[in-house]
């Protein structure tokens, strides 16, 4: 059954039709303008055929194209496809972009005919198949690429001529091209196919060609339309995803009121902008595919005025390059495919917090004892084959497997540098070592920690290679700062390296991080067994009271950890779906996914025994890192490891019934 998307309700729509085309790599090229509060530039997207396209094309049919149009029209996702006679190169940023825009001489002949829609059609906002599809070719409809997009001014969309890149012919050797008219189009798509499928040990070469392909000239503008939640793109006469351009460039601007980034001032009164973990994720920052299944790599060049520091969730520590007297450029990349929602940026007058070298050395030496005991190291040395898509994986890197403390930096506004040096810098190596002792290999190669502006609505937020911390954790001494740091570090494994296949299952991220923060923090403090037990019992009591109060004062539907129940993880035919209650205002302030998830994991640990339980967590990390999971993936593996629990009635189904699929708190 097709998912019906209604953006007027509390569910967050994920519109991208990932079943037909899947983004494999993004190249962002952006300028940050604090005067106008706008981020402007281009993004190049490199695609691979999606699973649905591969299934239908193998049968020789065009059903995937047809069903996508029927679904899009049924959802009412797009505005009427009016094609005005304009030149998008000269249009102002104030122009309305919710109509199809096109330029180029080869398409002018069709513009007049397709622009004849009545005012009634525009007013209704409901698209018929005539509105959103081209029916010139004997009734066949053009394929429509749908991206997640919101609060953006899209200026221009074009196909990228990757065949024009010097040296790119090496990717055409296996091309099997037929016909004359489509030869060049097929060649371009073949190049992209070969490029995105390079082996992981060629990742540097792949990045090199992604860079040069992203700078290649355009070879024809594409029609586009923006709706409330989406950007829809088509090419006249192209009726299947396989024939649609697999490298496209989108020129766009963010809007000052866009909900993915926030423009504000830091605690020292200086301007800054950052991605603050919005419920709508990054779709108001760049057009993308939001569904978690769209795992992709990215690279980004960001230019800003001198004096600003750009931090991103890239695996390299970006160093500024001076382009002009007052302009700096910052470049980052990632080689591990992850959802677009994990891309993070913060631009401000941040200062790096440093301390004398002997202090840092002493801190790390103090924590060398957190290396795994010999009886627990075996799980890290098994030469297991990773279950994820191919990428340069740290779990297969002998040097990374021995790294208890990854390189780290701390950034903050000038006025908070002293307190950061006093508390935060001392705690990071301790917490990293404790995490390594518990779970093993760090999934990411480095860590930046940024104290974000005071308008940040949470205590912390973890992204690959970077953690945002609230200034509030600094005033609570080492305990509050340390526990929050441990919570965010835990997300490197649960939430980032292992992600939820369905975002309604937040507990997979937050429940695990809440449970593990206690384990990490106890080891970081080097507490005795009795001290650990006392501290954890006290925290459990406080959490119980908070959860009880929340359950008594919230809607029952928001207390369910698996709100879609047996439909969890299901997608529509096109790949579109919804995040249930993703836009509900009350949900933002609730802790049920943290606390109820924590108590489920605590109950399992007590039933199984903490030593066996932590061993199962390590096994789960080894098996599922770099992948997306559902609740049953963890629960099934856990119960398989402990056969004796089956006799006690502890099953996946009973856990669903008692914990995940119902409101309230289990007895």
TrEMBL record:
GO cellular component: nucleolus
Record-level Gene Ontology MF annotations: metalloaminopeptidase activity; zinc ion binding
Keyword Hydrolase assigned: yes
Name of the protein: AMPO Aminopeptidase
Organism expressing this protein natively: Hippolais icterina (icterine warbler)
Region described as Disordered: spans on this chain: 104-127
InterPro entries: Aminopeptidase_N-like_N_sf, AOPep, Peptidase_M1_dom, Peptidase_M4/M1_CTD_sf
Domain of life: Eukaryota
UniProt KW keywords: Aminopeptidase, Hydrolase, Protease
Peptidase M1 membrane alanine aminopeptidase domain residues: 442-659
